[in-house]
Amino acid sequence: xxxxxxxxxxxxxxxxxxxxxxxxxxxxxxxxxxxxxxxxxxxxxxxxxxxxxxxxxxxxxxxxxxxxxxxxxxxxxxxxxxxxxxxxxxxxxxxxxxxxxxxxxxxxxxxxxxxxxxxxxxxxxxxxxxxxxxxxxxxxxxxxxxxxxxxxxxxxxxxxxxxxxxxxxxxxxxxxxxxxxxxxxxxxxxxxxxxxxxxxxxxxxxxxxxxxxxxxxxxxxxxxxxxxxxxxxxxxxxxxxxxxxxxxxxxxxxxxxxxxxxxxxxxxxxxxxxxxxxxxxxxxxxxxxxxxxxxxxxxxxxxxxxxxxxxxxxxxxxxxxxxxxxxxxxxxxxxxxxxxxxxxxxxxxxxxxxxxxxxxxxxxxxxxxxxxxxxxxxxxxxxxxxxxxxxxxxxxxxxxxxxxxxxxxxxxxxxxxxxxxxxx
Length: 424
Ligand code: AMO
Fold this sequence. Notes:
Strand order of the largest sheet: 6-10-11-18-17-16-13-12
Structural class: alpha+beta
Distance between the termini: 36 Å
Bound molecules: aspartyl-adenosine-5'-monophosphate
CATH architecture of the largest domain: 2-Layer Sandwich
Order of helices and strands: EEEEEHHHEEEEHEEHHHEHHEEEEEHHEH
Number of domains: 2
Shape: elongated
Radius of gyration: 26 Å
Helix content: 25-40%
Mean pLDDT: 96
CATH class of the largest domain: Alpha Beta
CATH superfamily of the largest domain: Bira Bifunctional Protein, Domain 2
Oligomer: single chain
Low-confidence stretches: none
């Protein structure tokens, strides 16, 4: 018999239907037993005169007929006739999949990731993440950006010489890519003009914080023929506005589950843009002490300020000093044409205009204590003519974390990698 998904079950259904999924919960009330059946689309109550012999999380197929019951979830239930066990689950579940996930510590959730991902609430994070990826790609293609996939094995650092994971590559050492930075720039110069990439990025950073992963997914953009980083900020506001509108239209159930909402594309247009110096001044005034760096506390405070100013908890900080930005960043006196986007208290994007003049780039590489010879392939791009260009990268897990209000970025990674964790 054809399988019916839980979301398609309605009171109008006549005759016997067949649903398949996982045993979510069993509740026996003497004469009647309720078995909640879960599939990827939802949960349905099935009703039994005699309790079926089956363990929680077993994979089953249940046949029966739909009846109305105001007290059942969704107002309907399945009067069950038969149950077939497709795959039994052992009775010693290390975590209860059907419990409130707030009751579990982050370590318990991650140690038992193979099971905690079965929780509908946790799984919905990744349905939403998939939607974010889809809308991002949809928007970039609508603006005629070409999607690229560059290698994640590289010969030298793309963001500077630190924070690299070494890999044995036959008889030599190579590194896991910190970003697709140099390749996305090369593709602009190679005539694609505007590209995007969705791919893994690796950072051998030692900090174990709610905002850092050692492996994350980077949504990268690069475009040619720009004159200033303001154009990039315009583009990012449009991308995020597009993604947020689609989520509000089509995924309001997930926003409700996480008790959150999102600004609309129109509201996003009001996102303030302030310089790094202005940001420090605002923070000094608000915190009542001299502020020299934008630390996590400062990022949160700036987002509160932005909310008061514009109604959105987001702002661009631009014109960072040269020493704070990577070697490829376009200088503007002692500052740079670069920016971060802070959203709900966290940096979710970095970007800026890039140096496209060969001599200036060689000078900048040396200034950052690196050897131009190590970047000789990259330098060819500029030796033989590269248009003015720039771009940015959004961290997928960070934007997912902030959309849903998750406490840690690790909750927004299927199988997070941090300093202690390389399994499951
Ligand atoms: P940056 O290093 O700032 O810039 O990274 C860009 C964005 O990637 C995310 N991110 C991370 N997310 C989780 N864990 C980490 N350890 C981590 N590191 C970075 C953040 C961050 O804003 N090449 C430039 C981008 C560009 O200029 O195009 C770059 O990689 O959301």
